[in-house]
Amino acid sequence: xxxxxxxxxxxxxxxxxxxxxxxxxxxxxxxxxxxxxxxxxxxxxxxxxxxxxxxxxxxxxxxxxxxxxxxxxxxxxxxxxxxxxxxxxxxxxxxxxxxxxxxxxxxxxxxxxxxxxxxxxxxxxxxxxxxxxxxxxxxxxxxxxxxxxxxxxxxxxxxxxxxxxxxxxxxx
Length: 172
Description:
Blueprint: H1 5-8, H2 11-14, E1 25-29, E2 32-33, E3 38-40, E4 50-53, E5 61-68, E6 82-91, E7 100-103, E8 115-123, H3 141-147, E9 151-160
Parallel strand pairs: 3-9
Antiparallel strand pairs: 1-2, 1-4, 5-6, 5-8, 6-7, 8-9
């Protein structure tokens, strides 16, 4: 069994197929780095994070998606995946503020259970080649990537539960 955090957290499987990371991705909420499986309360993720993208070629562009594969409830995720944020045309070596925000950031506010908030960085074929989906719910990162010929380049996730929630994540 793999000890890779994205596999252990079932991001690989629920959101993405296995892939090899090809670029660095740093997600920071108020200077606190998102590390796979870390815990954040809704009050800590109200404002959109700073997202740093690695790479070495400014002619390479990326799309960032932030999804909740556990919406509305981890034991019955009927809205999965719920799209919280979508930014396209992010040049390598910069951050998400240099991209084009197609779907504005919606802060996580889970009411039941522990939700995984997944950030996926997808390599684009070129600038201006990715467009917004029609709705936030029933989003599929896999289907979206296929539609626009996007290749997963990096991913990270954190766990989020309501302010008064306690306990660890239970896997299906």
